Amino acid sequence: MIKPQTLKGFRDFLPQEAKKRQYVIDKLKTVFETFGFEPLETPVLEYEEILTGKYGEEGDQLMYRFEDNGKRRVAMRYDQTVPLSRVVAQYQNELPTIFKRYQIQPVWRAENTQKGRYREFLQCDADIVGSSSPLADAEVIATAAKALKALGFNDFTILMNDRRVFSELVNNGSVSQNEMDLAVVAVDKLKKIGEEGVINELVKKGLSSDRAKKVFDLIRNQEKTDTMQDITLYLETQPELKAKTKFDPTLARGLNYYTGTIFEIEIEGYPIGSVCGGGRYDSLIGMFTGRQIPAVGFAFGFDRILEAMEALNLFPKDLANSVSKVLVTIFTEKTKQQSLEIVSRLREKNINAEIYLGEIKEKNPLEKQLKYADQKQIPYVIIIGPEEAEKKIVTLKNLQTREQKTYTFEELLPILQS
Amino acid sequence: MIKPQTLKGFRDFLPQEAKKRQYVIDKLKTVFETFGFEPLETPVLEYEEILTGKYGEEGDQLMYRFEDNGKRRVAMRYDQTVPLSRVVAQYQNELPTIFKRYQIQPVWRAENTQKGRYREFLQCDADIVGSSSPLADAEVIATAAKALKALGFNDFTILMNDRRVFSELVNNGSVSQNEMDLAVVAVDKLKKIGEEGVINELVKKGLSSDRAKKVFDLIRNQEKTDTMQDITLYLETQPELKAKTKFDPTLARGLNYYTGTIFEIEIEGYPIGSVCGGGRYDSLIGMFTGRQIPAVGFAFGFDRILEAMEALNLFPKDLANSVSKVLVTIFTEKTKQQSLEIVSRLREKNINAEIYLGEIKEKNPLEKQLKYADQKQIPYVIIIGPEEAEKKIVTLKNLQTREQKTYTFEELLPILQS
Q1: A-chain residues near B357 (CB < 8 A)
Q2: CATH number, domain at A407?
Q3: Residue A150 forms part of a structural domain
Q4: Quick check: A120 and B2 CB within 8 A?
Q5: Element (H, E) at B61
Q6: Which positions in chain B touch A350 (Cβ < 8 Å)?
């Protein structure tokens, strides 16, 4: 016998969970399409060289990589931004000049599972390729915000910054490139380790205590760039996004391909960090095309969104019910034909219905069938005994109220369709 | 520069194709849920021992297998029936006594791509676990047929057989087990190689010519089992499935885990083989649980369904359009604000709308924007020039008819919502 088990960091999604995931995916898709994003799918496996060297050293380590049967070095999707960049380069002539795409597929990272992280998880991305207008930055941020609204999140903050806030300090000579490289890494941890922690880390890396404080202060006191000003202005025109944005000069973001605007979204009342992060990356696609193509976008952390929705009770209650709205029971071999007809007619009317497929006991035939419906949380049960069969009616039992009443098929429909 | 390319047998799905795939998936899901099937998702990677030895020798060879960073032997999903069997064993106490699940996820097989086969492809399965009633066999067949109807296929044939048709001939002594093993493999190729081909193959394997003909005749003249009779009767009660079933004693099916009913569905007018195959497998789950749990189900060959739909012209025409129903253009910096407001109000009304994100030229600002809309097949364009901005109206241009007319926002809605 083979032990039935899943790999560490990998998950099965049984129906209850799968339905919640589908609910969120459907909402996200609808909003993405409202903003004019089109779907894209890329393969799970890529040539290794497509993916390596794009995510920093840690990325290369955590990537699932192997040699396939044909001796090719291959790697499993690690994010959706690098595959998008490859696609843009590969199909340049087929894609519109401004390419807006969304992508909702799993990615794999061999993370330390003790930190509560998964090795297979879903990413939900929306990106605009081919526009360097700040309006594009604003549009992706508005898309993310609108998606959160559609899921029921009313209270969230969009933290914004611009990678050029850092490079400006280097360009004007206030901070050396080396100091800035160290500072960006340290400042990225500000929320976890606090101001003192950031200073300590910089001191550990060789800066004097005074200099570390100075560099941190310089960063903290940087002002909005013009681009950020433009984006904020646009977002303020969206009534529901008013006062949701906050400039945070200490926002750094981990990935090193960002070149301009960066942002993260935090949910108020669920302080687990950001549920969404993104920004502008104007140099990544150039690694595949040889010419720079600007791009901006974001990814939702799907698992965190689900956690937050669970915590804030944002899932519709009826998601907990069975997919089937009604179980049609079988009373005896004689009435079976009527039961089959009813289930078929209900389906014809697009009512999710199932027929009982277990063994029918002669004594107390309904007992087990009602138990099955209760176990699966099917809201209604239809009973067709010899009397009902003869009169061409059915008994409908509401399993919540335990009430039951007889109806003709035509009377039944509006109740089950509601 | 890194060459942007995909692995042989792996595909990107650009928006046009991705939309068609999504259309089919949505239709299948709706039908599966009408029949009371619930969604399930399993991981891409499994412990190798979960998958190996279940698909025959060829399966083990074509499977993507490797050692992960933690020195575990892992394998990529090869079908969805074995993972389902693992799930049923692993969560026995959480699942309903009769578990009806559907699963729509990709699988990987390192096939010879010269035969037009893909190495990553989608499978769409629906299975009923825990019922040995012939009604369950009939229900899965009806589900498959209903799904094809929903996709627009009106003319198809359900070929049915029962694995016990073969075992009966062994049990009653007419054919030896060895002869039958060879015959099943040979008969499985009947459609490709013809009757003579089957006889030749059996002769090659050591049977005399007379004996080969005799064995083939015995198989061909077998009669329906009682179960098959029951299933056919049930299917005949579904008006739309009347006369769609055909008993075919030479139907064999490749996979060796089938134990009872087997079936395939062929599309009339698209003779490329079956688009759907399935059957009863009452021993597979026992490999993980130690006790037998009956199961019956099927998988759609997603790529073949798409090909057939393309050939028979079954996709709705508007799938070829852009996701965006309308492009809101920007005329000048001065009217930009009005354009932003309009796009935001359209989205508020759930109309898929995008704003032009390219550079706005001072001379002839609309030329490039209209070209972009044409390229993306966006059906409508909204123009807000200085005059429109002042009068609080918009010009709507239909890109198919090239007609344009001015409207108030309220007048615009019904046109774009239709």
Answers
A1: 98, 128, 130-131, 133, 135-136, 139
A2: 3.40.50.800
A3: yes
A4: no
A5: helix B56-62
A6: 30, 34
Question: Chain A: nearest CA to B29, how far in angstroms?
Answer: 11
Domain termination residue (choose one: B299, B317, B335): B317
Q: Pick from B273, B294, B317: which residue ends a domain?
A: B317
A377 lies in which domain range? 321-417
| Contact status, residue B182 vs residue B202, Cβ threshold 8 Å | yes
Letter for the amino acid at A358?
G
Q: Do B18 and A37 touch (CB under 8 A)?
A: no
DSSP conformation letters of B232-291: HHHHHTSGGGTT-EEE-TT---S-TT--SEEEEEEETT--SSEEEEEEE-SSTTHHHHSS
Are B141 and B22 found together in one domain? yes
Could you tell me if residue B6 is inside a domain? no
**Total domain count for chain A?**
2
Q: Looking at the structure, tell me whether residues B229 and B336 fall in a common domain.
A: no
Query: Which pLDDT tens digits describe chain A residue by residue (418 residues)?
Result: 899 999 999 999 999 999 999 999 999 999 999 999 999 999 999 999 999 998 888 889 999 999 999 999 999 999 999 999 999 999 999 999 999 999 999 999 999 888 778 999 999 999 999 999 999 999 999 999 999 999 999 999 999 999 999 999 999 999 999 999 899 889 988 988 999 999 999 999 999 999 999 999 999 999 999 999 999 988 888 877 777 899 999 998 867 789 999 999 999 988 778 999 999 999 999 999 989 999 999 999 999 999 999 999 999 998 988 999 999 999 998 999 999 999 999 999 999 999 999 999 888 999 999 999 999 999 999 999 999 999 999 999 999 999 999 999 999 999 999 8
In a domain, A151, yes or no: yes
Closest alpha carbon within chain B to A321: B38
B385 shares its domain with B243: no
Are residues B4 and A289, on separate chains, in Cβ contact within 8 Å? yes
CATH value at residue B61: 3.30.930.10
Query: Which ipTM was obtained for this model?
Result: 0.94
Are A241 and A379 contained in the same domain? no
Whether B5 is in a domain gets the answer no
The amino acid present at A359, given as its one-letter code, is E
Cβ-based neighbours of A357, under 8 Å, separated by 6 or more: B98, B128, B130, B131, B133, B135, B136, B139
| B336 shares a domain with B212 | no
* Paired strand residues for B65: B75
Chain A contact set for B52 (CB, 8 A): none
CA distance B120 to chain A (A): 7
Same domain? B312 vs B326:
no
Nearest CA in chain A to B82: A4
Residue of A nearest to B60 (CA): A69
Residue of B nearest to A327 (CA): B36
Q: Are B149 and B165 in contact (CB under 8 A)?
A: no
What are the tokens at A240?
Answer: 């529901």
Q: Do residue A69 and residue B351 have CB atoms under 8 angstroms apart?
A: no
Residues B308, B327, single domain; the answer is no
B43–A11 C-beta distance less than 8 A: yes
Among B58, B357, B359, B380, pick the best mutation site for testing chain A contact (most A Cβ within 10 A): B357
The answer on B188 and B54 residing in a single domain is: yes
Q: Is the pTM of this model over 0.80?
A: yes
Q: Kindly report the backbone phi and psi dihedral angles of residue A392, in degrees, each rounded to the nearest multiple of 5, phi listed first.
A: 55, 40
**CB spacing of B14 vs A87 below 8 angstroms:** yes
Backbone angles phi, psi at A55, to 5 degrees: -120, 15
Nearest chain A residue to B66 by CA: give it. Answer: A66
